[in-house]
Amino acid sequence: MKIKTLFLLLLLVLALCLATCGGEEAKRPVDYTGTEWSCEDAEISFSVSDQGIVENAVAFDKKVTVVFSDISEKKVSFYSADGKELYFSGSCTYGKSTFTVTVSDIYSSDFSGLPARLIFKSK
């Protein structure tokens, strides 16, 4: 009986350790202030200011505006610099120093050649 109780107690401690050691939750790029991001699959890059604002965003030599949705929605949209024209959008998978955009909608023919998946890395 003592061995069974000891085993169950050890199992409970192990389960608690695993539950609390899940690691850091992945965040959106705008949550990593003072970073620069570039796409491995297309000519797209941007930086995030110390205030968490996307700056210097460029896609294929066009200035763009990048808008990340709330972390729970996991979406991103790329607009013209003035924000009037939506170029393309997709869903995101976030990591600590990378994020992947699965392009779901392309609204501008200028971006019709985009790959279906865009991988961004922090510099």
Descriptors for this entry?
123 residues, alpha+beta, elongated
Structure characterization notes:
The protein has one helix at 2-20, and strands spanning 35-39, 44-48, 54-59, 62-68, 75-80, 86-94, 98-106, 117-122. It contains 1 helix and 8 strands; from the N terminus they run H-E-E-E-E-E-E-E-E. The protein is elongated, with a radius of gyration of 20 Å. The protein has an 8-stranded antiparallel β-barrel with strand order 1-2-3-4-5-6-7-8. The model is unreliable at 18-23 (pLDDT under 50). A hairpin with a 5-residue loop joins strand 2 and strand 3 (54-59). The relative contact order is 0.17. It starts with a helix and ends with a strand. It is α+β, with helices and mostly antiparallel strands and 123 residues long.
Strand order of the largest sheet: 1-2-3-4-5-6-7-8
Q: How are helices and strands ordered from N to C?
A: HEEEEEEEE
Give the quaternary arrangement of the chains.
single chain
**Structural class of the secondary structure composition?**
alpha+beta
The span between the termini is: 57 Å
Q: Report low-confidence residues grouped into runs of 5 or more.
A: 18-23
Total helices: the number is 1
Give the rounded overall mean pLDDT. 88
Shape: elongated
How helix-rich are the residues, as a percent range? 10-25%
Report Rg: 20 Å
Write the layout of secondary structure elements.
Layout: H1 2-20, E1 35-39, E2 44-48, E3 54-59, E4 62-68, E5 75-80, E6 86-94, E7 98-106, E8 117-122
Antiparallel strand pairs: 1-2, 1-8, 2-3, 3-4, 4-5, 5-6, 6-7, 7-8
